[in-house]
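User: Hey, my collaborator sent me this sequence without any context and asked if I could get a structure. I don't really work with proteins. Can you help?
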Amino acid sequence: MAVLEKGIWYPNKEVKDLSHEDSFELPKVAEQGRYHLYMSFACPFAHRPYLVINYLGLNDAITVSSVAAKRYSNGWLFDDANSDPLYGSQNLVELYQRANPSYTGRVTVPVLWDKQDHAIVDNNSSAIAMELATNWLPLAKNKVELVPDSLREEIEKLNEWLHVNVNRKVYHVGFATEQAEYDLASEILFDAMEQLDCRLSQTRYLYGSNITLSDLFLLPTLVRFEAVYEVHFKANKKPLKAFENLYRYMLDLISHESIKKTIDIEYMKLHYYFSHKHINPHGIVPAGPAISW
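Assistant: No problem. I've predicted the 3D structure and written it out in structure-token form, which is a compact way to encode the shape of the chain:
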């Protein structure tokens, strides 16, 4: 992992080796045009708030940009195709240093940036997605309650379960360095997918006939499965298409144009296959697989 410690970049230092990790506690104010979301089309966690913005129609209220697809030892970069529209930064490290010259912690996407105070509001994808789905609803064009009050506690619990057993677990499968570690992670991941497939045999979405925030937490993993996770991460105990209900559910969600336009398969492939040299040392990006949807 790569981190900043007191504003200095360490490309091979672990978070556990830091004396502390800074957090961001600036007030969140839903204000038209004040904020910018830095994300990556590759990162499933950054995909969460981006999905909320597009599905709710918050695009006029908050600006969005992506970092470059290729990631090197100096972290997330900007390039000609994906530049920093606010400051012309060369990389995300510069942005964190601008917000706090002595920042200590991970340099990750997404970043919710306050353009007025030139500061990071938050870099926690779950918190940003929840904030946008609830407190920003008055600014949305498509005023859908992704987190109904009656379901909020259940949604928060399911989102955490999805994060632990699906969203993060697929990385435990892909980054495993020992057989036993891989086998355990694979078992947990595919057991969770079986549970989800069973749940979706009874309902259109995770909570009935309406899309909720939980659906926008699960979808980022599903849309990366065939092109990346099954091949690059060896998450192939069972192909995604074999989960009939889960696959139908994914196709249903991406039939919404506001959702589908957040997905860039070629960008995703370029990022994963090029950037993970510990898995794919030559950085060769495969021609396939062909994605039917």
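In plain terms: The domain at 3-139 is CATH 3.40.30.10 (Glutaredoxin). You can pass these tokens on to your collaborator as they are.
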